[in-house]
């Protein structure tokens, strides 16, 4: 018998299961299971905005990951960017909790 492989649309890498991260990823998952079907599949990036938010919160915590996701949704609108936009594996030291506006520049190079 062959072992079943885990498949899903969200990031499967290791992450600390802190209360904030569980809350954030839970809210993203709730959105994916309920509202996402009504809004449609119109994201201009890969991974989609909700997949990006899930991974950003899982990797960087609710505060930093939430700001990364917020600015990613802003880039997805009309006149925004498109293409592959992965979550940064590590964040710069200049991205601190008291300066959330700096997260707008925390993107990977090479976006469409």
UniProtKB/TrEMBL annotation:
PANTHER family: MEMBRANE PROTEIN INSERTION EFFICIENCY FACTOR-RELATED. InterPro entries: Membr_insert_effic_factor_YidD. It is found in: Cell membrane. SMART domains: Haemolytic. It comes from Hoeflea phototrophica (strain DSM 17068 / NCIMB 14078 / DFL-43). The keyword Cell membrane applies. Could be involved in insertion of integral membrane proteins into the membrane. Keywords: Cell membrane, Membrane. Belongs to the UPF0161 family. One of its GO terms (cellular component) is plasma membrane. It comes from the Bacteria. Pfam families: YidD (PF01809). It is a peripheral membrane protein. This is Putative membrane protein insertion efficiency factor.
């Amino acid at each position: 018998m062959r072992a079943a492989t885990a498949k899903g649309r969200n990031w499967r890498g290791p992450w600390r299961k802190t209360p904030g991260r569980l809350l954030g990823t839970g809210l993203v998952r709730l959105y994916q299971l309920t509202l996402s079907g009504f809004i449609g599949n119109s994201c201009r990036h890969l991974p989609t905005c909700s997949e990006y938010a899930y991974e950003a919160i899982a990797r960087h915590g609710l505060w930093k990951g939430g700001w990364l996701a917020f600015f990613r949704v802003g880039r997805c609108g009309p006149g925004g960017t498109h293409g592959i936009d992965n979550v940064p594996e590590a964040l710069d030291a200049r991205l601190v909790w008291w300066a959330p506006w700096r997260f707008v520049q925390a993107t990977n190079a090479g976006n469409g």
